[in-house]
Amino acid sequence: MGDRKQARDEEFQHFVVGRWPRLMRTAFLLTGEQHAAEDLVQTTLEQVFVAWRRVGSADDPEAYVRRVMINAHSRRHRRRLKEFLAPKDDSGFTRELPDSGDRMAQADDRGALLKALAELPPRQREAVVLRYWEDLSETQVADAMGCSVGSVKSNAAKGIAKLRAIPGLAELVTNGGRK
C-alpha cells in the first residue's frame, strides 16, 4: 500500500516538474499577473493531486490538468470580474525564451500584447491563449473550455479581431517589435 502511494507521489512530482513552465505560462496568460498565475497553478495542482490516480491514468493528463485550471480560473473570475478585467503589469514575471517560430514571443514589447489580452472578455481570452499561444487544435480548446468547436472558432475570431483593432499592436507583432 505504501509503495503504491509513494509511486503515485513520485509520478505526480515528475508531472509537475516537467509541466510547471507551461502551466505557469498558461496561467499567466489567463490571469495577466504573476502572483495570480502562481495561485491558479497551485490551486489547480492541489485539486489534481487529490485525484491523481484518476488523472495520471487519463489518456492526456496535461489536457485534464488544463481543464481543471480553466475551470478554477472561471470560478475565480466570476467572483472578481472587475479585478480580472483590469490591465496588469508583467514586470517581475520570468520571461520564457522565445521559440524561433513564435512571432508573439519575438516581439520586443510583450507588455503591449499582455495588456491587450487582459482587455479581452474571459472566453475570448481563453480561446485566443489556448488556440494561438498554446497552439492547441480547435477540438482540444473546445474540450478544455467545455464548449463546442464553433464557440471556440467564434470566440477566437472575435478576440483576434479585437487585438487587430488595437493601434500599433498588429505592427508590433508583424515587425517583430521594430518600429
From TrEMBL:
Domain RNA polymerase sigma factor 70 region 4 type residues, every copy: 111-163
PANTHER family reported in the protein's UniProt record: ECF RNA POLYMERASE SIGMA FACTOR SIGM (PTHR43133:SF50), RNA POLYMERASE ECF-TYPE SIGMA FACTO (PTHR43133)
Name of the protein: SigE family RNA polymerase sigma factor
CDD domains: Sigma70_r4 (cd06171)
Family: Belongs to the sigma-70 factor family. ECF subfamily.
Any Pfam family matching the protein: Sigma70_r4_2
Key words, A-Z: DNA-binding, Sigma factor, Transcription, Transcription regulation
Limits of the RNA polymerase sigma-70 region domain: 21-80
